[in-house]
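INFO  loader      accepted 1 record
INFO  loader      residues=333
INFO  predictor   begin
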Amino acid sequence: MRLRKIQNTPVAVTELGFGASVIGNLYRVTPADDATAAVDAAWDAGIRYFDTAPHYGLGLSELRLGAALRHRPRDEYVISSKVGRLLVPNEQPHGVDTEGFVVRDDLRRQWDFSRDGVLRSIEDTLERTGLDRLDIVYLHDPDDHWQQAAEEAMPTLAELRDQGVIGAFGAGMNQSAMLARFLRETAADIVMLAGRYTLLDQSALDDVLPAAQEHGKSVVAVGVFNSGLLSRDRPAEGMKYDYQVAPPELVARALAIAEVCATHGTTLPAAAMAFPHTHPSIINVTLGMRTPEQVGRNVELHDQHIPDGLWDDLRAQGLIRSDVPAERGRGRE
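INFO  predictor   done
INFO  writer      dumping tokens
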């Protein structure tokens, strides 16, 4: 699995990353043995970048990922987690978490991008994972907290990076406009961009990707299937796009892209995974992986050859923007 370096940092990540939200029981229960087996399968496939967060399963994802990685050589992998949602005792539990994870709600999330909140969150994550350090720390969805995130959280993470406590830091969001602000106006090294540079949405070309190029910073792409619509060879009515049922016009566009993929001897999900790598600032695509079978499928899709002519044809037919860069070609940096 090839490595790409986060610009101006010592941290390098594999081009395919393991997203650990699903092993925190996202939407349904994942047995503990399946979660461990998925991490082991990812390791055996050469994946060395693993992403988690306190939000994922109210700490369950961090607990499981830390346990699965604890016996691995620490210098051979990169782990990222997030700050901004502290986990605190829930005085009024309902029995099950209400934010998409099938876990008990004995804890609740509390927004906090203060200096103390960041330091406490990192300390709590290290305790849950049992690891000695985090390589990358992201602010998690600071959409409604720009001032505190930019004025307190980012300087705190910059100090930790400069002290060598963490290797790199940034922010992760479902929008690109504020991520561009973080790249331009703070010391962030990297951002995690969810769903805004895909075969169906290239809006990041208007803000975050030019900002990354201009300032010599890096981008991790997640949500490349846009909640599922790009995950199958033949998209169908009723599939999800950005967490909602996809409108018919988007289903039709996804089908049209799938037809072009077929003429080039590839599939829609393989192209969806390869597409972010057309931009030189994007160094990694991270996907949720719940089972060894999902790991195997994702690795197989990642390894498929995508001919450069596919992007040319999609541009020519107006199915992706005309300013999408030519295929960069993946390689070690």
